[in-house]
Amino acid sequence: MAEQAPSEEDRLRIARQFIEAIPYAAALGMRIEALGPGEATMSMPWAEHLVGDPQSQVIHGGVVSALMDTCCGAAAMLHPSQPRSTATIDLRIDYMRPATPRQRITAHAYCYHVTRSVAFLRAEALDEDGEHPVASATGAFTLDR
Amino acid sequence: MANRNEPLHQIKSRRDAALKALVDGVPFLAWVGIRFDRRGDELTAVLPFQQKLIGNPLLPAIHGGVTAAFLETAAIIELAWASQWEDVEQGRLTPDADDPSSLPRLPKTIDFTIDYLRSGLPRDAYARARVVRSGRRFASVYVEAWQDNRARLFAQATGHFMMPQDE
């Protein structure tokens, strides 16, 4: 008997559970905003203990990296080719401007090219000024079949 | 010219105080638990393992974002440390962690690229950064990180930074 492919709805539900079970994502207060085929939108709040520059109160770059990495990983997992798992090969982050303190940061990631074993992703992070990105990222992720 | 006869304990406490001021001023470092070991002017960033740093509970493995933050921190602190070393040695700079206005301004990351070479184990991690090029405005830094074996890196990174400009 042929195994039935999970429905789109099932896959999104599974992905949601998977992301919500990541301890570090939970510790940073990450929240899923939207999931779709090969793309994801996630956000996280500013917090005093995440500050990287005491003078300006700007959040640490590494926190933005974590949001980008998680969001890219989620988008790779949600590619319609249905990979079993994924891991980051490399990730480049460009910091375009300091994120405004006390504002929520939202990242959107999508697969712009996928081979049998690798997904290429792009992501952008915004604060509450939704027009001028805080950071952008490109990354390669493994796809395990 | 450094004073050769300066008491050793005084030299050590001056250097340790300067390092502490750099690190203690950053709330995020305390929250993730990053600290620095110093041997002369050589720094090693240390990240003790904690459950909250997990990114993949099935393996389990440290979150890629933790690794990224750890390497970026190792790079920034090394860069700030190296650029203020002479001033600290000459007694021109005496940063105090309790007085934020005395703290040196940190370099700003322009871009940062991380290679994930193997998954981060649920164990302590270490990183060392090397300033490849340091100019008046820009600097380029290479970082490598390992866990159990110094020769088996689990991540490496390069980044470009904007140096703080004197007013």
Automatic annotation (TrEMBL), chain A:
Keyword entries, A-Z: Hydrolase
Pfam families found in the cross-reference section: 4HBT (PF03061)
Top-level taxon of origin: Bacteria
Domain Thioesterase: 58-131
NCBIfam families (UniProt xref): unchar_dom_1
Name recorded for this polypeptide: PaaI family thioesterase
Source species of the chain: Paracoccus albicereus
TrEMBL record, chain B:
Ranges where the Acyl-CoA thioesterase-like N-terminal HotDog domain occurs: 61-161
SUPFAM superfamilies (UniProt xref): Thioesterase/thiol ester dehydrase-isomerase (SSF54637)
The protein's name: PaaI family thioesterase
The organism of origin for this protein: Paracoccus albicereus
